[in-house]
Amino acid sequence: MSFAELKAARQGKSSYVTQNSSQNSQSSSAAPSQVVQQSEESLAPTESIYKAIPDFLEIRSSSGSGRGLWAKKACTPGQVLLVAKPHAAALSSEHLDTHCAQCFGSETDGGLKRCTQCQIVYYCGPTCQNLDWVIHKHECAALQRIAASGETSLPSDAIRCLARIMWKRQKLGPTSSWTREIDSLQSHNQDLKPAAYELHTHLAISLVRYLGLSSPSEIVSFGMVSGADLANFVSRFVTNTFTISDPSLMSLGASVSPPVALINHSCDPNAVVVFPRSRPDPAQEPLMQVIALREIRADEEILTAYIDTTLPRAQRQTTLLETYLFLCICPLCTSTDEVDPRESVWCPKGCGGMCPTPTEENSFSRCAKCKAVLQKTDEVLDAQRIGQQALDKATTLQLSDPEKAHQLTSNLIPILTSAGLTPSSHPLLALTRLHQALLISALRSPTQETLDETIVTASKAFSGLCAVLRYGHPVRGLARAELGKLLAVDEPSPRQPGSGSAAEEALRFPPSGVKRLRLALDTLLQARAELGVGFGVPNEGGQVGRSVREDIVKLERELGAWKKGVSEVMEDARLAAKSSSK
Ligand SMILES: C[S@@+](CC[C@H](N)C(=O)[O-])C[C@H]1O[C@@H](n2cnc3c(N)ncnc32)[C@H](O)[C@@H]1O
Q1: In a mutational test of the pocket of ligand 1, which residue from 49, 63, 65 has the highest number of ligand atoms less than 8 Å from its CB?
Q2: Ligand 1 centroid from CA 426, angstroms
Q3: Which of 477, 454, 456 is nearest to 465 (CA)?
Q4: Domains and CATH numbers, the chain
């Protein structure tokens, strides 16, 4: 449900206003002394083919993290560093009938038309269908083959993306710059651990089945000579694949872009990869953009985060090691700070400081500010354990059984909060964000209570995110925009005096009446500025930034009308007082 629909749903209720208005710079994880600049002469032939890389960036290699992209000149927050259309992209199965398979636009942008042959993929219209036909003609046959075989589930987005690369590779040939860029992606095929090897083998087998290959020799037509080539190809894909997201960061599918894949990882990144869809051109979308999150110095490496950096260090490192085969030594992973807000508990004495969350191995913990020792370590450990279990379960259930998922998040959040976990601490932050998403999707005809509960949850989630993500991060900007939009949905009548002291009333959150509208406006103005960084200054916050700007205009109008209403009432009162005194 959109916020506009939500606002419309709330308009059934008499509206207060309507009545009155009659209307730091981080260093790279690679050791600088080991960085080698790749001059044109020293570049391997494949490395000079990245046409998307602008002049102010260059490829350099380091012994720690291989090739990477480095800034030759200083860059500013919100600067677009790199723009690239993925070499290949595939929608995940649940979005095949809600998004265009070519430009990834959603059905809400306009009606979608189904491919009459496979009846599985959809397009915005003939333009997108024609643009995609060169690859879809193979895909269409493969999808029809799958349907005819009686298979009930479709191949995953990973398999469909891999197949799209294979067909394009077959069309363009092994010497095209497109294929050379794909072939230059890093592969970890030689160093795979058993679990990863199994995953890659499974992917390769599913791919061969989907392509309809019946003998090993058929692989030759794709420019590969052996099964080892195929294994390498799959390994390259796993190491270099990107999730395509919509402008509100909902995951839509998988993609591969060799120039963007040159960027190495940091858990405290100086850049992000987004798909802002600011002025969508069907031939160019889904368009990836790498945006600077902060000032980047000349000779500093561009680093993005491959994983969710709101997670604690151990979880981040496990994922990076399993999927990308490296041990992260970024500043966040090697920090010796006493407390990481991702793993923190409020001071037991209430001084406002934080203690590191205790662990099974080390249960001693004390406040970093006043040094008070944390006593209830078992309670914290239990809360974390059951919180993680509930989070896993609620995440799995959120689409199939949202009520059950909501029950889990509602029950667990108070337990974790009373154990003292801070809003930015894992798994409390993740549970709060999930709770917020579940509340929003259930807000069809909200009551004042459900709306206010959603606003309180959104505010807690936002404050947790602010402690762990730097200003401008798109996740933070979107959370701020969501909070502002929720505050703008309604402006309940000011609460009657008597329900609390004036001071208590002033502190109540969310506020009521015009104070709520002012807070909404203020939050949306800040969200617009923050989205402007995370989605790139020239993109003006992307699609969400655009809708925030529209909300701001409406709110300013409402506030203007409210002010006018109040001054008219005051004037009437003044005139009445004057005439009665005569
Ligand atoms: C998407 S690629 C990045 C480009 C890659 N360095 C190259 O040479 O093509 C991901 C791989 O780069 C390496 N890598 C990325 N970030 C790293 C880091 N912070 N430390 C060490 N290795 C890293 C890992 O081998 C990882 O699997």
Answers
A1: 65
A2: 26
A3: 477
A4: 3-22+338-569 (1.25.40.10), 32-85+257-324 (2.170.270.10), 88-242 (no CATH)
Distance between Cα 36 and ligand 1 center (Å): 15
Contact in structure between 105 and 284 (CB atoms under 8 Å): no
Ligand 1 near 64 CB (within 6 A)? yes
Sheet holding 35-37, edge to edge: 35-37, 57-62, 66-71
305-356 tens-digit pLDDT: 999 999 999 999 999 999 999 999 999 999 998 899 999 999 999 999 999 9
Calculate Rg over the CA atoms of the chain.
27
571 token code pair: 């004037």
Report the SS3 class of residue 2.
Answer: coil
Decide if 542 contacts 247 (C-beta within 8 A): yes
CA pair distance 578, 570, nearest whole angstrom: 12
Interface confidence: ipTM more than 0.85? yes
pLDDT (tens digit per residue) in 343-359? 999 999 999 999 999 99
Chain centre to alpha carbon of residue 448? 29
Question: 538-557 pLDDT, tens per residue?
Answer: 999 999 999 999 999 999 99
From the number of C-beta atoms within 10 Å of its C-beta (0-12, 13-18, 19+), residue 93 rates as middle
DSSP string, 6-54: HHHHHTTSPPHHHHHH-------SS-GGGEEE--TTTS-GGGGG-TTS-
